[in-house]
Specification:
By secondary structure, this protein is an alpha/beta fold. It has one domain: TIM Barrel, CATH 3.20.20. Strands 3-1-2-4-5-6-7 form a 7-stranded mixed beta sheet. A hairpin with a 7-residue loop joins strand 1 and strand 2. The longest helix has 14 residues. It is globular. Bound molecules: iron/sulfur cluster. Iron/sulfur cluster binds next to loops.
């Protein structure tokens, strides 16, 4: 997986002060995407051990509430193995930090169930990633539904999903802040 950059202090992509990992590569291609230069999977630089340590170090600062995974598309097939490792490292080394993830996919409740294999090879990996997150913002950016007053999302079709509640209820539950 390549990444475009690590933003060490951000307040626009999730609750509180956050670090953002902007991954390279997106297979969704929303019309009007704010960041089309991130669609190329070869853009940016490889997410290597040094980048992982830089991210963990930035995230460990006491005023940082958590990590946001954005891009590009963190759930693009090619990015799943490294995104899984990033989530696992945060869960093991900084369990007090929360994880937000942005995806262009429209998710269903069973996508968060890590015991279910829905068929394609990396399905379980995607489910495990989603189950390690606290909040997931889903859906394509739809420029006809653009609304600049919305917090943490660009268009009104996108949902801010509370992962723990979704898993407990086995239906999509929205984050209430
Ligand atoms: S999923 Fe995100 S990065 Fe990909 S095209 Fe849509 S808005 Fe752009």
């Amino acid at each position: 997986m390549n990444y475009i950059k690590i933003t060490k202090t951000d307040i626009a992509n999730g609750a509180g002060v956050r670090c953002v990992l902007w991954v390279a590569g997106c297979d969704v291609h929303c019309k009007g995407c704010h960041n089309p230069c991130s669609w190329d999977f070869d853009a940016g630089q490889p997410f290597d051990d040094a980048a992982m340590e830089e991210l963990i170090d930035a995230l460990s600062r006491p005023w940082v509430q958590g990590l946001t995974l954005s891009g590009g598309h963190p759930l693009a097939y090619n990015n799943l193995p490294e995104i899984y490792q990033v989530c696992k490292a945060v869960r093991e080394r900084l369990p007090e930090k929360d994880i937000w993830l942005y995806t262009g996919y429209e998710l269903r409740a069973h996508d968060f169930d890590k015991s279910v294999d829905i068929g394609w090879d990396n399905a379980l990996l995607m489910n495990h990633i989603l189950a390690m997150c606290d909040v997931v913002v889903d859906g394509k950016y739809d420029e006809s539904l653009r609304n600049i007053s919305l917090k943490f999302r660009g268009s009104s079709n996108q949902r801010i999903i509370d992962v723990k509640k979704t898993i407990a209820a086995n239906e999509i539950c929205l984050w209430e802040g």
